[in-house]
UniProtKB/TrEMBL annotation:
Residues 60-344 form the Amidohydrolase-related domain. This is Amidohydrolase/deacetylase family metallohydrolase. Pfam families: Amidohydro_1. InterPro entries: Amidohydro-rel, Deacetylase_Atu3266-like, Metal-dep_hydrolase_composite, Metal_Hydrolase. It comes from the Bacteria. The lineage of its organism: Bacteria, Bacillati, Actinomycetota, Actinomycetes, Micrococcales.
Amino acid sequence: MMPPTAPLFDMSIVGGTILHAATGEPTAATIAVRDGLIAGIFAAGQPIEAATVVDATGLLVTPGLIDLHTHIFSRSTDLAVDADRIGVDQAVCTLVDAGSTGALDFDDFRANVIEPAATRVFSFVNVSDIGLTAGRTELMRLADVGTPALHRLLKNEAHRSIRGIKARMSSSVVGANGVQPLIIARRLASEFSLPVMVHVGNEPPAYSDVIDLLVEGDVVSHAFHGKHGGLFGGSTSIREAALRARDRGVLFDVGHGSASFSFETLERALEAGFAPDLSSTDLHNGNVDGPVHSLATTLSKLLAIGLSLPAVLGYATANAAAVLGESTTLGTLRVGSIADLSLLRIDTSSVEFTDSEGATRTGSRILSPAGAIRAGVDFRSVGAHS
């Protein structure tokens, strides 16, 4: 008697709907996984032999969601929230910690966050050696900025989890140093072919002085806040610096946060033809219970003000993967890419959403997490890692 043959695939995800890459139209399909990679996408109902079958009936199956701006290093800052609580437990496969850690504690971050997390974790390392360990004033001492320790860290191939450099450009952070920390960050980023992520809030430093230093692939976080000194600068028109930056390929990220996302600002920007490129959360323990909640909630807020589902999902999949230098491996359903998949429900009940300023909008299409598959490993049990 011949021994039984092994199933062709390790896993199949059946019954779900994907968005057709060319048209953005929903398409019923079966996704097959082998060795942690997407091995095939087949017509719904086509028989597929797989060791494990994931029933995604009634669910949207997307490339694994990526949240480019979070704070998940509790040993560094009291802001931190557990990585898996806002990662795989919320159908998010990849998180980026945005500046919680600097060169001095990065090994600690790797050992205590990156390695044990079920969620994939990358870092935009703080340009200051101390990160957020000393509160919120890390760029006031230039002696801590762009040091030999940071240079060694960036040069170390063992730290491939570092995918960019973070610099917070607010007066309360930089003090009298103005844009000098950003100049240093940009110089280092150029040397190591990394993007810079800047936090923009109230001036000073002047918005234009900050934005004019950025180059293609850099990220402006909190791009649509409602504070003085933002995208409109108190005017009715988008600032010329922002328009020039977009022409150069600088990317503009929602970066919701506790005080950094305004429905009105984004609506005005959309009317002017200035849509986001990215949508992250800036999740930490001060906003995870509101107003931000999760990446799915943040994306649902964008749906509520009229952005399309393909665009909104693209902000947190393909566009985010490109920032991380992972366009061929993450953020896509391409055969051969890593089998990171987010399973989402689309609810059609009416929900009132709140931005960072307390303004509300009512949404009728709400994305809610039903689970994550990361590199072919099933994390559908939402809440299992919180």
